[in-house]
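Thread: Modeling a multi-component assembly for a lab meeting

Hi all, long-time lurker, first post. My supervisor asked me to bring a structural picture of a complex we are working on to next week's group meeting, and I have zero experience with this. I have the sequence lines for every component (575 residues in total). Could someone generate the structure of the whole assembly? Inputs are pasted exactly as I received them:
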Amino acid sequence: MQYLIREKMPFLLSCIALLLLACGSLAVGSYSIGFDNLTTSKGLDLFEVSRLPRTLALILCGASLSVSGLIMQMLTQNHFVEPSTAGSMQSAALGMLGITLLWPEAPILFKMGFISLASLAGTLVFLSILSRLSLKTALIVPLIGIMFGAVISALTTFIAIHFDLLQSLSAWTSGDFSGVLKGRYETLWIVAVVTVFAFIVADRFTLVGMGKSFATNLGVNYKRTMFIGVLMVAIVSGIVVATVGILPFLGLIVPNIIRRLRGDNVRHNLPWIALLGAGLVLLCDLIGRLILYPFELPLGTILGVIGAAIFLYVLIRGPSEVI
Amino acid sequence: MIEVQNLSKSYQGNNVLENINVKFERGGITAIVGGNGAGKSTLLSIISQLEEADTGHVLFDGQNIGSISRELLAKHLSILRQDNHLVGRLTVRDLVSFGRYPYSKGRLTQEDQNHVDTALRFLDLESLQHRYLDALSGGQRQRAFVAMVMCQDTDYVLLDEPLNNLDMKHSVAMMKMIRRLADEQNRTVLIVIHDINFAAAYADRILALKQGKLICHDCPKTIMNSETLELIFDTPVKVEEHDGRPLAVYYR
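Re: Modeling a multi-component assembly
Sure thing. I ran the full set together rather than chain by chain. Output:
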């Protein structure tokens, strides 16, 4: 019983906190929705068309991007890599531009598939650069990822300027949830499926994170696991970029906070990472909506400030020794 | 039995292993010795299928080891290499539990838990089981990795320089533990080791490599003479008798 309280209580409390944040996210907006007018048709409409989709999209993106960050970190054995520092997100943006130019009327699922494929290709290129690298220090790996991402972004910008799409491009990629409406976020449920799948294969990622010979010794197919992981990250990056844009650093901050507190066991950490990722995004979005009420600050900005502050605090305080 | 046939391997034109033929019978400890770059670790890596040979075969109980699936092999042969440069923040118990991965794929049964408990007790790690690996000393961490391999419950255990970074006390404890692994649990142990005296004191057979070639594969008594040792290690070695056992002296 005592074990149960010590192990499960923090998680339960965190779930309740997430629920409260979600309720806050549902309640805040320039049109006030409370229990009194939720039953009126206007209130209900607004709730169904805008508020609920937005809150769900925030939760799904926050959780899945954080989990993707963790997967990237395990695959590269480097704790400072995440989809936006590995070229995955930037490649997805390039793919999005590409499909808009090539086949703008394409069905939404085809578009998502194309964008995810672009993200997959970019991530694989990044990994193949890494495998050629003789010096894989903790900082070189993310630096190369950031440079690689910058090159892809530059290419994307160049093409966008050429076709006079620069404004649309910056609107797509800015990590904005204010445009999330019913009918325009449902593809995000696919990333929910990917995230659930991560729970099933979690142990394999822990083992791959311990190194190739370590994983191979225990009967894990190293190459296949790498590919599955990259595929998962690419699908999440592709769909999130296509739906709401780029949310930087989330996949970096959240897994590292949890890792500092709870170690490297992926299966034990996944629920926490998904929870904290969703919570952090909800909180930042809420702040962004309240700070200049009734105007909004972009989520990415708030996330950068708050995330950096928390991350610095955790880094300086150092790992906790849980006995 | 593991049988190595006509095995050769080269990296960028350098022959690391040249036409190696050797049989490892079941049971006991075989120490693989030789100077730096003699091909010891490469031999271990090829036997355990972490690296591929250029030519030649490894037969595992008569079957070509390459045709055995990785998942199945993990239940019969385990290898511990010394390249765990990045030590994940796992607890000792989590790490040891991963030794059961080939059997339970992470969903541990009661039987798996018993194996974990036994391994932790065997290596005297019970009091450290909830500590993180990165908070342990080198010797404790080494013991945790060996406990994991023991938990894997394989007939063959391959250890690449298990005494690396261990002080005198911990080296002796580690060798005693490996001896018990062979004697009490009937494992067949292959270890790469630098210290010829440790090899002679604990191993049943010594296999010596020099520049990728097999020099000899015999019991320690036969190998422990200055002529053979000087051939293997390329440095003057005197062999003296101490407590009825041969002792190589090569320090000055």
